[in-house]
Amino acid sequence: MATVESTNPSGTAVDPARAVANQAPPLQPIDLYDQDLALQEALHREGGAWGEDRVREIGQVAGSVEAREHGARAERNEPILRTHDRYGNRIDEVELDPSWHWLLRGGVERGLHGLPWRERDADGSARAGGHVVRAAMFGLWGNANAGVMCPISMTYAVVPALRDGAPALAERWEERLTRPDYDTGALSGMAMTEKQGGSDVRANITRALRQEDGSFAIHGHKWFCSYPPCDVFLVLAKIEEDDPQPSCFLVERGPGMEFQRLKDKLGTRSLASSEVEFRGIRGELVGEEGKGIQAIIRMVNHTRLDCMIGSTTALRRGTVEAIHHARHRSAFGAALVDQPAMTNVLADLALESEAATATTLRVARAYDEGDEAFRRFATAIEKYWICKRAAAHANEALECLGGNGYVEESGLPLLYRDAPLMSIWEGSGNVAALDVLRALVKEPEGLPAFLDECRLASGADARFDAHLERIGLRLGTLGDPVAAQFQARRLVEDLGLALQASLLLRHAPGPVADAFCASRLAGEGGHAYGTLPLGVDAKAIVDRALPA
């Protein structure tokens, strides 16, 4: 007969084999904003203090048990494409779980898709700090579900593309596209890539045929189109077969836009991404004919900012989950968080998270200020670097939980599957790195603006100053195009680290900035997370990342 060592809450004896001990309590509910000191500081520093109540509210809801349950249900009950009704009529509808609608409604009704475009000062001008406030809110809501952030991001990003390339269309659509009403507003998607081209959109074969009323009839296919229930889409197509590049068109969903299948993806499975065929659907020109890439790049730059925000959310989430577990789990006679090897790992994860947070909100401020030279360059660089770090970070955070992290209920497998998306979307690693090389030539004012920002920390740390010197030497080797492409990633990595280090040296506590410079700039750390050098104050970094 089994011995009894404990009782349950009702006083009934419990078989020790069934007793639960040495497990971390549920993390939800958690106030995601009040627990994030780096985010609070960056929100105030970058001009978003006026939106703090909104940011706090969304952090509380996103960290609730209800939001977690909706997120899990939306992932579990994946979208279903209904191409035809029972009679054979084409309907092209996507069946979505009610939890998906709860999540997307929550983002839309809090204005994540349009806040910077709608928020106004008393004189009618755009309110300063709108992009910063929106970035903080967008990042926090991403904790509830990453998939719903895609249509929110594309809708936010289409507004500047229409304003610049088609003012008449902007006048017609902007109010609906920015309306914080899920039932009566509109959402925007995009369809750029094709089977044969991928990132090489100049290889597109979709055609746009002129119509007598000045519009175009779109014929062709797109390998990726997200998200099918959107009301409008930006689509690339060539007007003439031999056009060197496509033109950009606004297409309203309806007959002639036929969805072929939904993608069976690694992550963000709650999000319906599709393949689509266009069969004469009406398109209206955005930008100049034959300059579709220039027209759509305004949208892409803003969605790249959201890629940075999404990866920053993942970095923060993994850090919080790992620290929370380590504080409540014991092994070999001590809490995990107090064991030196684990302390090193946790501090390293926290460094990555804080650096991304500071950088993302600084870049968001550049969108508020219209600092085109800096923001264009910084977005391309940090989109590459922050997003590239997310997958390895998620893996390490999962490993901190061991077997507990490998099971779906922990949420870490979902974080791990979702992490690569931001690095792929809107330009994978090589595309982003080569974009920086092109910007060096075509936008020569970008690099000086970027380096000027970095140099604001000059003299604060000798390791940082030496890093800037090495960047200057590397830039001097870019004359050979082949050599430049071969080392493009290393250059962008160095630049990304320079901005992060500069921000941490200027704004973060000493232990954070010192450990970052030692491990990321001076070569004193290793290649995996958890290889911080001796001498750093790892405990102070962990305690700051998640106040006990």
Structure described in brief:
Residues 189-279 form the Acyl-CoA oxidase/dehydrogenase middle domain. Belongs to the acyl-CoA dehydrogenase family. The chain has helices at residues 37-45, 52-62, 65-76, 98-109, 115-118, 130-141, 149-165, 167-178, 292-328, 340-369, 372-401, 403-406, 412-418, 420-424, 429-442, 446-454, 462-475, 481-486, 488-507, 510-521, 538-545; strands spanning 6-7, 13-14, 80-84, 90-95, 188-191, 207-210, 216-226, 232-237, 247-252, 257-262, 273-286, 330-331, 334-335.
Low-confidence stretches: none
Helix content percent band: 40-55%
What's the end-to-end separation, in Å? Answer: 42 Å
Task: From the 3D structure, determine the CATH topology of the largest domain.
Answer: Butyryl-CoA Dehydrogenase, subunit A, domain 3
CATH class of the largest domain: Mainly Alpha
Quick one: biggest sheet? 7 strands, mixed
Estimate the global geometry from the Cα principal axes.
Answer: globular
- What structural class results from the helix and strand content? alpha+beta
Number of strands: 13
How many separate helices? Answer: 21
Molecular structure report:
- Residues 290-440 form the Acyl-CoA dehydrogenase/oxidase C-terminal domain.
- Pfam families: Acyl-CoA_dh_1 (PF00441), Acyl-CoA_dh_M (PF02770), AidB_N (PF18158).
- It comes from Patulibacter brassicae.
- Helices cover 52% and strands 13% of the residues.
- With 548 residues, the chain is an alpha+beta fold.
- It folds into three domains: 37-178, no CATH class; 188-291, Butyryl-CoA Dehydrogenase, subunit A, domain 2, CATH 2.40.110.20; 295-545, Up-down Bundle (Butyryl-CoA Dehydrogenase, subunit A, domain 3), CATH 1.20.140.10.
- The strands form four sheets. Strands 5, 6, 7, 8, 9, 10 and 11 form a seven-stranded mixed sheet that branches. A two-stranded antiparallel sheet has the order 1-2. A two-stranded antiparallel sheet has the order 3-4.
- The radius of gyration is 24 Å and the shape is globular.
